[in-house]
Each structure stands twice: as structure tokens, then as C-alpha cells.
Design brief:
Layout lengths: L4 H21 L8 H4 L2 E6 L8 E6 L2 H6 L8 E5 L3 E3 L1 E5 L3 E7 L2 E8 L3 E7 L7 E8 L4 E10 L6 E14 L4 E5 L1 E7 L3 E7 L8 E12 L3 E14 L4 E7 L7 E7 L5 E10 L13 E13 L4 E4 L1 E7 L3 E7 L10 E7 L1 E7 L4 E6 L11 H4 L10 E4 L3 E2 L13 H4 L3 H27 L8
Parallel strand pairs: 2-27
Antiparallel strand pairs: 1-26, 1-27, 1-28, 2-25, 3-4, 3-26, 5-25, 6-15, 7-8, 8-14, 9-13, 9-15, 10-11, 10-14, 11-12, 16-17, 16-24, 17-23, 18-22, 18-24, 19-20, 19-23, 20-21
Helix pairs in contact: 1-6
Length: 451
């Protein structure tokens, strides 16, 4: 290689490229494939009577809760054998109230002074199912009884419900207001509703109309998890009973614990703590995390009142061990004979083709929560009473690849490299400038002597 400015110019790109290549070699190669990045899967058995592509549901089981990410964001559904990702919707069956509006037009509003107010709602179409009515009024501070009648032809009327109370209580000065003008009645397909409001000598309400709904309540679906009482101690100094319960594994979503207590007529305050790994020494007791600070359990069996509630409720928790502390005060300890945890069922809903087979993958701590179009379309689909698929055994993915830890940056592995490169670059630039100065000196005329 030649010397001088031209040789230096050829040297600079080589140095820069070599440095860039060293840095690129230190970057990890990223991959995100189901075949290699998901540690476990469960085969899915489709319903035997599924003959055409359709939505199916499959209930998650304890093994998925135990081995999947806490937020279940790493769950993937894939079709075999090509392992193409299938969109799904994760349902938490915590119960729901779904309500659809039915168009209605008010007419025939009238009053019998001091007795009643009546009006009719025309739903304008026949056969629309409805079971709820919101009475629109601007009146304040009232309580009235309401009767609802239905008719298909406005000639023959039948009572749907009577003796319903609507009210409003407003304290304007304090900014306080509470009201309930919504009434429910048995399911009906009648086109006409006649509403009678009893005034009992009071001023009639200022009625502005009514809104009709079809309301449908979906009951929550619960799963029961047996809990083993591993410890039960009495603390006479603190006047407490301490129970330690084992769910068998971490990750199970739990929002209440039911206790089996045969005793009658008691009321106790309780607290709940949770932990994933049971403390081994007294120094580990800080590991317990508060799940519910203050809850009550009771059982009353008296001539005037009979009721009980032996369930301790809390925000959803996924610990393995639970510690329940019962405050006895000056009462004898309660005999606790058993316990079980309650949680909401979770289901995956996806479109399945009976000509294919499917797997549910889980166990990827680096996976992001998927985003599918199905999430937006789901409210408009029929999703009740779907065919139920079944999860197979927990299976290790043989294609799972544990990527080696990414190498440290080259500047950490070779801390001397960057200073050397900077020094070499400075020398090259210096030599380049010195060469230019020498060449300039040879071409410039000598300075003129002073006059």
C-alpha cells in the first residue's frame, strides 16, 4: 500500500469498516418462532361432532397456569402440521350483563290528577325480545309504584309486573343524588307497553319518555381448587388462629377461599397473606404478601336471623401458599375442618377446522401479548354454547431452543479496544494532515524579504 495522503485515505475506510464489523458481530440474532421459542404445548382434541369449521372453546387447566407467564400473554394456538398461528380470544368467565336497546316511541301520556300517570310505548316492530324499561323523568325527590302491561294489539292487555318502586333522592346543596328508574319484567315480545305510575295524591312526574332494553345476565363460571391445611396453630398471646393452606402449585387464579367451619353463631375478622415459595426460616417471613387485609366470616342461627358467609374474598391472586389469620379476640378458636379456593374459569375461543389438528403452546417469558382482529369482531359473534374442545397432556416441545446468552458488548469484552482505535485514528488523521502541510510547503513561494 502506498504512503502519503492517498495511502492514508485508503486506510481510513478499512479501519472504520473493521470496527463496524466487530460491533455487528456482537449483536444477538433474534427469532420468534413457535417451533423453537415455546417450551411446552398441549394437543387439542376437537369435539367429535364438529364437521364444519366453527368456533370452539377450550378451558385452561392448572398446568397451563403453572407453566405459562403470569398474565397468560404467552399462550399461542397453532394448527398442525405447519404450525401456523391461529387467532384466539381469552375469556374470563366472571359473569356479565349484556344489554341491547330496543327502539320505542312514547305516546298517550296522560294523568288522572292525584291518582296516576300513564303512557304507552310502541316498539314499532313485532317479535323483539325485551325485559327492561328505563323511565326518563326530570323530576327529583320522589318515590312511586309502577305497573307494566303488555299488548300485541292494544286491545287485550296483560300485566307483566306490578308493585315496582322507582325513586330519586337529590340534595342539591351537597351535590348528592341517587336514583333508580329502571324496572325489569319477564321476557316479552309484545309490541306495546303501557306504564301506570301511582301518584297517591302527589304531583305527577314529568315524564319525558322511556328506553326499552333486552338485558341478559351471564352467570360467572367458577372452578374449585382443593386446599391442603399444612399448618394450624393457635396463638393465645395474640388471640389468633393461623392457618397455612397449600394450593399445590403457583399460578392458579384465585379470588376467594371458602372455609369449612361446623360451629354456629360466630363473627370473626380475618386477614390473608400469600407466597409462592414457603418460607424456610424466621428470616424469610417477610416473603408473605398481603392478599386481603380485613375481611369477615360469620354464621348466625337465631330465631330472628339465619345467615352465614364462610368465604374470604380478595382481588385475584396466583400464590401457591396462603396464610389465613383469624382474630378470635376473647372467644375460643374456631374448628376449621377444610378449605378450598375459588377462581373464575378461563377459556380460549378460536376457529377450528375439523380437517386439521391444533396445539396450545405456552412457556415463553419473552412473548408479547398477541393482538388479533378477532378481539374487535368478538362482540358481534355468537359465543354462547360453543362446542367444547379438550386439552391433552402437558408436553415438552422437543424443538425448543435455549438461545445462548447474548455476548457482552465488544467494548466490555475488550475495554482496551476503543481507546486503541481512537488513538490509531488520531495518528492516521495527524499523519494525513502533516503530509498535506509538507506538500503545501513545497508548492508555496518563499516569503519576500522585508523592505
Amino acid at each position: 500500500m502506498g504512503s502519503g495522503p492517498k495511502g492514508m485515505m485508503r486506510l481510513l475506510p478499512i479501519v472504520v469498516l473493521a470496527f463496524a464489523a466487530a460491533l455487528l458481530a456482537a449483536l444477538p440474532v433474534l427469532a420468534n418462532t413457535i417451533e423453537q421459542d415455546w417450551r411446552y404445548y398441549k394437543p387439542v382434541t376437537l369435539p367429535p361432532d364438529l364437521t364444519l369449521p366453527a368456533l370452539v372453546e377450550v378451558e385452561l387447566d392448572p398446568e397451563i397456569y403453572a407453566y405459562a407467564a403470569r398474565g397468560l400473554n404467552d399462550i399461542r394456538v397453532a394448527s398442525e402440521p405447519e404450525l401456523l398461528e391461529v387467532p384466539y380470544k381469552l375469556l374470563v368467565e366472571s359473569g356479565d350483563q349484556r344489554r341491547a336497546t330496543v327502539a320505542a316511541r312514547m305516546r298517550d301520556l296522560g294523568h288522572v290528577p292525584g291518582e296516576r300517570t300513564t303512557f304507552t310505548l310502541d316498539l314499532q316492530t313485532e317479535g323483539s325480545l325485551h325485559n327492561e324499561l328505563e323511565i326518563n323523568t326530570v323530576s327529583r325527590n320522589f318515590q312511586r309504584q309502577v305497573e307494566i302491561e303488555a299488548s300485541d294489539d292494544e286491545e287485550s292487555w296483560r300485566t307483566l309486573k306490578a308493585g315496582i318502586t322507582i325513586f330519586d333522592f337529590t340534595v342539591k346543596e351537597q351535590g348528592f343524588s341517587t336514583s333508580n328508574t329502571r324496572v325489569s319484567y319477564p321476557d316479552s315480545t309484545a309490541r306495546f307497553l303501557r306504564i301506570r305510575i301511582t301518584d297517591d295524591g302527589l304531583e305527577p312526574l314529568d315524564i319525558r319518555g322511556g328506553v326499552v332494553f333486552f338485558a341478559r345476565k351471564l352467570e360467572p363460571q367458577l372452578s374449585t381448587i382443593p386446599l391442603v391445611i399444612t399448618e394450624q396453630e393457635e396463638d393465645p398471646r395474640r388471640k389468633e388462629t393461623v392457618l397455612v393452606l397449600d394450593a399445590g402449585r403457583s399460578g392458579l387464579p384465585i379470588n376467594s377461599i371458602d372455609l369449612d367451619i361446623p360451629q354456629r353463631n360466630f363473627y370473626r375478622r380475618v386477614t390473608v397473606d400469600g407466597v409462592d415459595r414457603f418460607p424456610q426460616t424466621d428470616d424469610d417471613m417477610w416473603m408473605w404478601q398481603t392478599v386481603q387485609w380485613d375481611e369477615s366470616i360469620y354464621d348466625y342461627d337465631t330465631p330472628k336471623f339465619t345467615s352465614n358467609d364462610l368465604s374470604v374474598r380478595f382481588g385475584e391472586s396466583r400464590h401457591r401458599y396462603y396464610r389465613i389469620t383469624i382474630a378470635n379476640e376473647d372467644n375460643p378458636p374456631l374448628p376449621v375442618e377444610g378449605a378450598r379456593a375459588i377462581g373464575y374459569v378461563r377459556k380460549l375461543v378460536f376457529s377450528a377446522d375439523p380437517a386439521k389438528s391444533y396445539r396450545v403452546y405456552y412457556g415463553n417469558k419473552d412473548a408479547d401479548t398477541p393482538s388479533y382482529d378477532l378481539e374487535q369482531i368478538f362482540p358481534y359473534l355468537v359465543t354462547e354454547g360453543l362446542p367444547a374442545a379438550i386439552l391433552g397432556p402437558h408436553t415438552e416441545n422437543l424443538d425448543f431452543f435455549v438461545a445462548p446468552a447474548p455476548p457482552k458488548p465488544i467494548t466490555e469484552r475488550y475495554p482496551w479496544l476503543l481507546p486503541v482505535i481512537v488513538a490509531v485514528a488520531a495518528l492516521v488523521v495527524g499523519a494525513f494532515l502533516a503530509s498535506i502541510i509538507r506538500q503545501l510547503k513545497g508548492t508555496l513561494p518563499p516569503p519576500e524579504p522585508p523592505q
